[in-house]
Amino acid sequence: MKYIKMDCRSTLIVVLCFVSTALAEAELEPIFDNPSEHVRYFQYKDTNVLQCNITGVSPEKAQEYSIKWLKNDEVLVPSKEEPIRYVYEGNKLIIHKTRDEDIAVYTCLLVTHSEPPIKWLSRAEIKTEGIPTAKIVSQGTFIEGQKIHLECLVTGKPTPRIEWKFGNTTYSYSMGRVRLLPKNKIPNAVLEIEPSSMSDRGDFTCSAANTASEFLNLVVEASTFVRVKDKLAALWPFIGICAEVVVLCAIIFIYERKRNKAELDESDTDQSPEQKNTPDHGKESVRQRK
User: Fold this and answer.
1) Is 74 exposed, middle or buried (0-12, 13-18, 19+ CB in 10 A)?
2) Structural domain for 44, as ranges
3) 161, 170 Cβ separation under 8 angstroms
4) What residue stretches are annotated with the Ig-like domain (predicted)?
5) Of 22, 55, 238, 254, which sits 20 to 30 A from 129 (CA to CA)?
6) 119 and 159 in one domain?
C-alpha cells in the first residue's frame, strides 16, 4: 500500500494513516484581530470570544468534527458550575469576565470521533493580549507644602507604559519637584510632588499604552482633579468664629450702654412735681415763721 511509505510500521498505524489522509483536507482557520502577529485582543471584565473555523470541507462534513481548546498547552475544561467562566460553543471558546490570568496562548485542536480514535488532525495557536485599563487613586485635597501623591492603577498585557499629564506638560520621567516612581514592577505608576504649591491645583491625567492599544488606536486615560489648600486653611474657620464672637460682644456692649443711658434719662424725667417744688415750700415755711 502507498500508506506504508508514510512511516506506518504496523497494521493499526496503517489504518490510522489512512484515516488521517482521508481527513487531511479539513483545516482550521483561526480568527485574529492582528493576523500578521496571530493575536487576539481581550477587553478586561468583559466577555471575549476565540474562534477557529473549519475549512476545506462542506458544512455537512464539518459536522463530523469538533474543536477542543488548550490554554498554555493545557486542556481547558468548560465551566460546569457558577461562576461560568469558559464555555464551548461550536467552534468558539467564550470567556466571561476576563481577568489578567486569561491573557495566554490558546490552541484550537481539530478532532473527530472516528475509530480508531485520533488525538488531533490539525491545530492552530491564538496569542492574546490585554487592552490596558487605567484608574487614579488620590485623596483629592492636599495642604500647600505637603506631598502630593497620585497612583495610576493599570491592567494590561504586555505591561502598559505610563505617562502623566498636567496642563501642557507631559511627564515620562522625573523632573524638578515631580517624581515618577514604580509600583508592583510597573514603571511611572506613582507621581509625587514635594513640596506642593497652589500652582499644582488642577487636572492630572495618567495614560496607559501597550501594543494592543497602539494597534487598535485606543487612547486609555484616567483623570483626577487635585485641590491644594492654603497652609492657613484650617485656621480660617477658627478665625471666623472668633471674629463673630468679637462682633457679637461689641454689639451687646453698645446695646447695653445705650440702654443704661436711656434708663438714666427716663429716671430724670419721671420725677413728680411735688419732689421738684420741695425747696420752695421750705422757703414759704421760713417766711411764715418770721
Assistant:
1) exposed
2) 2-131
3) no
4) 30-108, 132-217
5) 55
6) no
Per residue of the chain (290 residues), give pLDDT as tens: 233 333 444 433 333 343 444 445 789 999 999 999 999 999 999 999 999 999 988 888 888 888 999 999 999 988 887 888 999 999 999 999 999 999 999 999 999 866 665 678 899 999 999 999 999 999 889 999 999 999 999 999 999 999 999 999 999 999 999 999 999 999 999 999 999 999 999 999 999 999 999 999 999 999 999 999 987 666 667 777 888 888 888 888 787 777 777 666 666 665 555 555 555 555 454 445 44
CATH of the domain at 37: 2.60.40.10
- Which runs of E-coded beta strand occur in the chain? 27-30, 39-42, 48-55, 65-71, 74-75, 86-89, 92-95, 105-112, 122-137, 141-143, 148-157, 161-166, 169-171, 178-183, 186-193, 202-209, 220-229
153 close to 159: Cβ distance less than 8 angstroms: no
Of the candidates 204, 200, 247, which has an alpha carbon nearest to the alpha carbon of residue 222? 204
Residue 122 and residue 147 in one domain: no
The dihedral sign for the CA sequence 244, 246, 247, 249: positive
